[in-house]
Amino acid sequence: MSQATPTPTPPVTADTLRIGAHVDQTDPVAEAKARGTSLVQFFLGDPQSYKGPEIRYADGAAALKADAEAAGVDLYVHAPYIVNVATTNNRIRIPSRKLLQQHMDAAAEIGAKGLIVHGGHVNKTDDPEKGFDNWRKAIEATDLKIPLLIENTAGGDNAMARHAERIGRVFEAVHAAEGADMVGFCLDTCHAHAGGIALDTAVQQLLSLTGRIDLIHANDSRDAFDSGADRHTSFGAGHVDHDAFVELIRAAGAPVIAETPGGPEEHQADFDWLRSRL
Questions:
Q1: Which neighbouring-strand residues pair with 22?
Q2: What CA–CA distance (Å, rounded) separates 152 from 231?
Q3: Which residue, 11, 195, 197, 213, is most buried by CB atoms nearer than 10 A?
Q4: Angle (CA) 139 81 88, round 5°
Q5: Residues forming beta bridges with residue 238, ordered by sequence position
Q6: Do residues 61 and 52 make contact, with C-beta atoms less than 8 angstroms apart?
């Protein structure tokens, strides 16, 4: 397997940490202000639906883009969970490609900094090579108007992005596609822990395979290492190695989104927990 050339980034400190949270999409700018942050992530519509994106901001997409820019708030959009462009099942793969393009278009319209999408999976009896090549085809078929960030996932033996080796194979396929320069990587700490990737070596290992880490989904885990369970909890309240968790965020040098339970008060407590350890 060929290795990507890592993109160097300076380590994060308590003063340079950029951390936000996953929030409701109705008024992301207000949600950011309530948490004292300059970045937020949200869904555009129902994350379990093929119906397509919805802009629920009262004044529409153009106003959300303008208001976020005026407030200095970076917006990130998470694609629906049901998107699976890797599968060999045409009834899922083709609608997934369509849905991915729709969310790409909508995210670009609001000026989002990136669209995050899960790595997907193949069927139990499928050759994983088909899934890797389907990722290549999906990148070539999608008009990438903003960065598309592929996220590692927590469970499933047939997953494309649970284990490090397969994450590397996804990016090897992606790097062969036209438009690969617009594809990045989102590292989820709960997913890595639950998926069997040790946090203390994750940054070095995954940078060597993907070439970049564009965003961190910072989450503690309610379950044990390599459990395959995707259950997030607040910083310091779960089973991840907390020293390794902090050092991962320090070393990755990327913006951070907390996908932890609660609202502004709970998220601010997570932010403070992390800053006090950086």
A1: 41
A2: 14
A3: 195
A4: 55
A5: none
A6: no
Note the pLDDT tens digit of each residue in 79-98: 999 999 999 999 999 999 99
Using pLDDT thresholds of 50, 70 and 90, give the confidence band for residue 157: confident
Query: What is the tens place of the pLDDT at every residue in 162-180?
Result: 999 999 999 999 999 999 9
Domain map (residue ranges) of the chain: 19-277
Structure-token match 């790097």, residue found: 175
The per-residue b/e assignment along 57-89, b for 16 or more CB within 10 angstroms, e otherwise, is: beeebeebbebbeeeebbbbbbbbebbbbbbee
The first and second tokens of residue 143, run together, are 């008009």
Domain 19-277 has CATH 3.30.750.24: no
pTM of the model: 0.96
Q: Of 230, 147, 158, 156, whose CA–CA distance to 189 is shortest? A: 230
pLDDT attached to residue 1: 45
- Is residue 216 within 8 A of residue 22, CB to CB? The reply is no
pLDDT at 232 over 70: yes
**Residue 146: predicted pLDDT:** 98
